[in-house]
Amino acid sequence: MKMIIAYIQPERLNPVKQELFEQGVTKMSVTNALGCGQQGGYVESYRGAQIEVNLLKKVRLEIAVSAEFVEHAIDAIIGGARTGEIGDGKIFVIDLGDCIRIRTGERGHDAIG
Amino acid sequence: MLSYFNAQSLFAAVPEPVFDATFTVNNLWILLGALLVFAMHPGFAMLEAGLTRAKNTVNILCKNCAILAIGLLTYALIGFGLMYPGEGWLLPSWIGPFFQGIDPGMKGQTMAYGDYTYYSDFIFQAMFAATAATIVSGAVAERVKLSSFLIFSTVYVGFVYPLIGSWAWGGGWLKELGFYDFAGSTLVHSVGGWAALAAIILLGARKGKFAPDGKAQAIPGHNLPLAALGVFLLWFGWFGFNGASVLSANPAAVSLVFVTTCLAAAAGTVGAMATSWIIQKKPDVTMVLNGSLAGLVAITAGADAFTPSSSVIIGLLGGILVVLSVIAIEKCRLDDPVGAVSVHLVCGIWGTLAVGIFSTNPEHTVLAQLTGIGAVGVASFLSSFAIIYALKKTLGIRVSEKEELQGLDIGEHGMEAYSGFQIFSNQ
Q1: Do B426 and A43 touch (CB under 8 A)?
Q2: CATH code at A71?
Q3: Which of A69, A70, B93, B127 has the highest CB neighbour number within 10 Å of its CB?
Q4: What total of structural domains would you count in chain A?
Q5: pLDDT in tens, B191-225
Q6: Interface check A104 vs B, CB under 8 A
Q7: Model-level pTM?
Q8: Which of residues 13-72 of A touch B (CB under 8 A)?
Q9: H/E element holding A94?
């Protein structure tokens, strides 16, 4: 079992969800995040003073999948989020120790869905 | 000594205005009317800001501030003289004189046709001009380029609005035909509404508004309390918009207008709420708010010529119409973020037509009203279409896709409306 964490541009969320759905991945968590990487920030101005904004708005996806789905999920995320420009985002894959469904108490493969 | 006597005789040649109690009261009401119509501007600003996304709020506010200023200044320079030529028509009944300014000198203190001063007349009418322009700003919100929009507004409010207005209120050919528009359902609201329609046709929808199959996607407003405040302020201002359009403080007329205006607004609210409840299964507060405005716009053409009971009918139908037209406009793949076309154009036309049907004055005919609606429609739509098309081909009227996604606040102004808040949007 793996946990896929992806940081994408906020406006790519809908296309990514669509692609994941087509690959059979329907369970995920979405949070808003601020982040920076290679993408530069921008400058705002307010009454004569400049403000440098370099933490940009991102969307963080967390998807727990069993091993067979990992590549499908990654391909789906890339398909939905890639625009070819700097700032498309990053995907991390980490090992998942266990997964428990709260309602029934199922563990492991049964729980991951 | 000699110069003193000369000055005396000069002053003696000009008739002294008589400021008796009646004059003062009438004049005061006109000035209060100007104040109330001014209050419609924060109304528009809040309504538009509330119904659009947070990332574009600075842009909305800036457009509203600028339009008020542009409206007032162009009206002073060009509009007032063009709209009310008096004896100075260039092409009688059709085109008035340009660039008259507003300094009447000692002679023009009072108006020949009313108990108020020249300056009161100017400031009251100037506030109207600004409201016509601001109707367009809501329809083009969230994707129009600021500079192009300001140029369009200057030309449209500066020249087109007063020219069309002169045809009726200035004593032109529409007035001669018997066309009647008490406070501007056609001359203000539909003039703005036609321009809004032309603008959204040429501008295109916001990105993400329509799915590839044409189905409308919701782009919810970010602050409905502001939108509601806006509508209440507009209703508040309408007491002056209609009330002072009586052009005197005549107790009978003004009190009737207050009643018809309010009843229509109330009926519009109820009509829209009912329609929205039936069609959308649950009442949509933005539709209810649009309904109040619909009733107000509809009654504006004849608030002094309707009975209270017919006001209710007119407002009710306005409220029903506005909900249906919001849905219809989206079906045409046109994106109107605040319902400007539905409220101002559709209900402006309805209200003007209603004068021919419901007016207590037998001189008001459906034919004259239709003529006015048609003529103003053709003139406003064609001129606004031409101006915007010219801007589209030269400067461009739309921001880049990247800027639209980032938000016009950053793109056009380099600042945020809600600094310190993390506003997240996925559209």
Answers
A1: no
A2: 3.30.70.120
A3: B127
A4: 1
A5: 999 999 999 999 999 998 998 888 999 999 999 99
A6: no
A7: 0.90
A8: 13-14, 32, 34, 42-46, 57, 59
A9: strand A89-95
